[in-house]
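In response to reviewer comment 3 from the previous cycle, which asked for concrete evidence that the modeling workflow produces usable outputs, we include below a single protein chain processed end to end. The sequence was submitted unchanged, and the resulting structure tokens are shown without manual editing.
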Amino acid sequence: MIIYALTSGALILYVGKTANLTKRRREHRCKKNHTSTAKIPDYIDWDIVELETCADADSPSRERHWYETLKPLYNERCPNRSKKEYDAIYRQRIRTSSPNPPPLM
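The workflow returned the following structure tokens.
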């Protein structure tokens, strides 16, 4: 599996994984795709950069590593975040945005 980034100069736009980098590049360039990269403005000229190659079994954790390290601008979600992590983030947002936060269970 290939872990890659879409970059524009020093900007890291997106981090993902694929088995076929050529095909994935085409998919990102197509504005009909429904990934978060469709939100990258047309005036941004980007390149695709291979970050590493790893075994399929290791790819979820490696993609997450690169996402957390590079902090891309256009990934909509953190790759491979567990339900427990999402729930904790949701509870934290509720506590900080609500005048009467619900109790933690």
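The domain at 2-97 is CATH 3.40.1440.10 (GIY-YIG endonuclease). We consider this sufficient to address the reviewer's concern, and the full set will be provided in the supplementary archive.
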